[in-house]
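F.,

This is the one I mentioned.
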């Protein structure tokens, strides 16, 4: 496993009966946005599952990545389906705070 700070982006998912957690790893930018969209599209549309995005291993996010999160938020809100973010690194949380989107991204309060 490569643990380099410049690690390429990858997405893994973990499902159970009630939720799907999507783990973002590496750097989320324009170059990999299509990869994330392919994974997220069917998950976003499944309103029966809570959708959780875990950002613990996300090193970087650009405006394209933020735009994807906002489009997910809008779609899930329109379906009245749960969408939360989990383990947002401090440097990314600071960006969310500065851009004003933090108030729209609900942290996961059901962690054990």
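My design for it:
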């Amino acid at each position: 496993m490569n643990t380099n700070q410049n690690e390429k982006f990858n997405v893994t998912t973990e499902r159970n009966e009630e939720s799907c957690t999507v783990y973002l790893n590496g750097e989320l930018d324009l170059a990999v946005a299509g990869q994330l969209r392919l994974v997220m599209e069917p998950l976003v549309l499944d309103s029966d599952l809570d959708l959780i995005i875990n950002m613990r291993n996300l090193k970087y996010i650009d405006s394209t990545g933020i735009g994807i999160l906002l489009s997910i938020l809008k779609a899930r809100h329109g379906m009245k389906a749960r969408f939360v973010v989990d383990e947002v690194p401090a440097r990314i949380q600071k960006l969310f705070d500065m851009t004003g989107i933090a108030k729209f991204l609900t942290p996961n309060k059901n962690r054990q």
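The longest strand covers residues 50-61.

Talk soon.
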